[in-house]
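cron nightly-structures :: item 1 of 1
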Amino acid sequence: MDILAINCGSSSVKYQLYSWDRKELIAKGVVERVVVGGSFIQQEVPGRQKYKLEHECPNHTVAMDLIIKTLTDPENGVINDIREISAVGHRVVHGGEQFTQSVMIDEEVLNAVKTFQHLAPLHNPPNIAGIEAMLAVLPGVPNVAIFDTAFHQTMPEYAYIYPLPYDWYVRYGVRRYGFHGTSHLYVSKRAAVLLGKKPKDCNLITMHIGNGVSHTAIKHGVSVDTSMGLTPLEGAVMGTRCGDIDPAIPSFMMQIEGLSASEIDSILNKKSGILGITGKYTDRRDVTAHAEKGDKTCKLAMDIEAYRLRKYIGSYMAALGRLDAIVFTAGVGERGWQIREMACEGLEYMGIHFDKERNRAAVKGEECLITTDDSPIKVFVIPTDEELVFTEDVAAILDGTYTDHMNFEYSFSRADFGK
């Protein structure tokens, strides 16, 4: 059984084809610049050179068709016939309160996802476009929705309700939802294995740090708080998003600059964060390189990000009461030894005995311990694998064994995983 995982953004479509029978990756790739022009597909197959083809994709249906044609291409493909694809798993960013786990997509589910578009206007529309496009390209093939928000539906009411008019929650669903759920799920299960414990016995802080950044407090294996809120704008400093700020700032700047609501929303989401501070960069590698050369705004951006990370660690330790481990994951979390070192600096009194040599020697793509062996609280670097979560959810739904993540055994939650 070959399962196709789709992560559909507004102008890109990431994909991965996985053989469930052989338990191995067949191919992965991305279609870039969908809708905007200058589109191309790039595909990676184990043991081969990268394949790239320029092909205009004016909409997501064309992009999906291009993916299928590339996978089945006689020279560069990996399967002979599209009928070898048994099912498709789709990342859906926002599932509201209705979806607490992955589900098979039917007309009712698709219509429900459409009703949440106002909660994720930048994300759900392309997710929906991807689903509809794949339904058109592969008619009759089962499609499954995997929700970013599902993992966080275990949060207690006092953690997700904002101190705003309660009627806003009742009428419009204004509350904390959280995102990056599949990433937090994956690394929390792996952390439990590394600790030699069951997930239900673990208290963790998982820190997903990429262009988008979110942190989650996990108590007894389930999410009890997370940094992103109604939308992915709240929380940590991100590549282009501001994260936590004084909520009066937007209206203040709208009055001074004569900005519209859509303009200020664009600034907070696309021109703030690391980009806003440096004025030039979103990639932390650029920021680090220029900070080392003496760029003051790049150094400031790193100081701000690290300081905010420490604040979240401290607040989540207070929320959890007892902490077993902190996990860094995603692009910056996995590769940025500098930001990890800065974030954990001075936390020895909390029981975090950081090992700088281990941290700097951490190898990309490998799970690493970056505290001392006797550190009361461990700190791990764990590469995330959201697509594997997609794949396993799809396979379990198809064979009728799927249930909530605390009762369903993922392959990666076993000690012999990868051996």
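cron nightly-structures :: done
The chain has two domains: 2-147, 197-381.
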